[in-house]
Amino acid sequence: MFSQHAVKREDAAPELVRHSRYPTRLSVYTDAPELEVSIEEFETFALDRLQVLRAIEDAQLRAKGEDDQRRRVGEALDRHLPLHTNRSRLPARQLMAERRKDHVSHFILRLAFSRTEELRSWFLRYECALLKHRFREADAAERQELLAAARLQLAHIPAAERKAMLGPGADFYGAQEALFEVDFERVLDLVARSQVVLRAGKAYVPQTEVAALLAHEFRQRLARALAVCAKALPQLGEDERLVPVLHNLSNQTARREYRSATAAGAVSADSVDSLADGFPLCMQHLHAQLAADRHLRHGGRMQLGLFLKGLGLDMQEALAYWRRAFGAMTDDQFAKGYAYNIRHNYGAEGRRADYAPYSCHRIITTNPPGPGDHHGCPFRHFAPERLRAALHRDRLPDADVREIAALAAAGHYQVACTRHLEARLLRRPGDAQPAAVTSPNQFFDLCSGAAPAAAADSR
């Protein structure tokens, strides 16, 4: 039997937490931590949070359904960044330590990932995903606390007024469902999925979808905070304690550009065509259009050119390959219009940067193709019928084509590409399930059985 003293200590723990620096379990990180952190804690906290964000990325690419994704993320949180509720029977000191670690680690990664646009984009994406996961898993009281802390300024629509405001659209929602009016720009993902009714520029968001609104507001505020961090970062100067740690953290994301282990010069201009069968769909398309049109516009030349560079096509062989491919023009036209850009990609011109091949994330999210363009991601940018036709040309079974096309239609572009790779590899006995595809060069290396590759810093 518990002693009276033990019971009092158990009851007191939640009360101590409620009056502490971290009274609630979940946070939108509005206030920077005002406390000292040892250099050991600084690095350990940040690495643990980074493990969670990378686990979320991997779950989005590899999970088989929403339940599997939630399980994977939950396991990573339990292992690296646990956050227990005030109702748990843990001592107040442990609850405070967990919340301190969560709070501090978020702000450390803000610094580490503010350095470049690509790093900021990666951090924003997965911090928002983490917040949405925690919000979904929280109880009603914790959700209300988080919404109050976020100050979302939601306009509640009373049930009696719904019919007058929404007309027939009121029937879209359940009779007992709380409803809020917001500007439609704040819930574009819900609009895209037809999850809300729109009237005169307003979206009517049910209580069950408030997580999307919370994530949007969090993303906007965090984006502004990262921009401020980026301006403040140079003030750290050459701090020998912090700067190396921050650079190490940002260099550990899965968003790093992929570099094949294949040595430069391993591929010749003459051998490119024979390798095309192992290209991912995006590069197959570019290669085929180059052969058909004897030309590619700038976006296609960059995407295919850096991919071939990653395969081991050195600069001289690249000049020979592209000159032959652009056979309809004169040597003078090629030298004046295209040779400089090829040399630039290899660091022989301009600022002498050694450019890496494009990642899937970059291809999917930046520079969408316009009329006459052939770059981009087929799973993102092809019409459904065109995508299915391309998959059939790659000799995939009908069942695989239907599954992959459905994944692409649902917006799971890298998952669809990974399934494409799996479908190709499963033709060969003994092939293990491949890693999630994050780069066209990785697809080629896995498909062709090349040696494992190394990742390089994003540029």
From TrEMBL:
Top-level taxon of origin: Eukaryota
Name of the protein this chain belongs to: DNA primase subunit pri2
Annotated keywords: Hydrolase
Organism: Coemansia nantahalensis
Entry keyword Hydrolase: yes
Top-level EC class as recorded in UniProt: hydrolase
EC id: 3.1.3.41
